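Subject: Sanity check before I submit

Could someone independently write out the structure tokens for this chain? I want to compare against mine line by line before I put it in a report. The sequence has 264 residues.
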Amino acid sequence: MEIKLINTSLSYFRLFTKPVHTTEYNEPVAYDLARYLHKLKLEGESESIVIEFTTNNADLLPVWIQYHFSDEKRKTLSQSVISGMDNLIFKSESHLRFNIERIKNRFIEDKCFGNASFRIDKDETINPNLSHDIEIQDLKIFGSGNELVYRKSGVCQESEKPMIISEYRNLLEWLPLEDKLKLINIGISRGQKYPSQSNPYIVFELNYSEDRPSVKWGDKVGNRTGDDIHKWYTYVTQLIKDMNINNRVYLLLKQELGDELVSK
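---
Independent answer below. Compare away.
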């Protein structure tokens, strides 16, 4: 299901369920969580944006369509139905663009937990029921030539089970034109119940270019082992399908970690 406007669109893809855990260690599965996958797109002249997010609201798209193209709003149309509909489309386009830009700007922040709100009405104070909690899964930004210039996604290993407050524990940011990667731990702690209780931190910032490779560790990162390399490599391969890049990243992390272990 999709609503496509001038240069923006909102799509509903599918329902999936996951057995989720609380943030208490060794606690059994709490219940199966139903999540609905959606996609936002903005096609601009200088850049295009694609955002995938999940929500527990099955009616987000139908409610959005009903709100912006309701009988009440259609009654305000001028005698020229075509120009009146153009006006409704323009207003809904502006509002969907507002959501896309706001969610994008939030997600690219290093301190972002990955959660946001999708606002069917711009003023969520007046209309709180028209603001829906979402979890951003993936953000892609393309340049004017349709080349990927930025990507940030939630990443996880199979052993990292989804939780009630988040489907992932780490975010990976990739700048392919600059040969840069950044891994961010979203800072989930034991017993945590709300995203606002988190304090996300950078695990590493990595430049995998051939002429100036480097790894910068985050201040909160503790002892690192070989197991960490395999975990991080799994994260990287979820975003990057170019094995030449993946191999450079793996060797750079292995060399950096090997030098540290030797120095200790």
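---
OP: Matches mine. For the report I'm noting this point. The mean pLDDT is 87.
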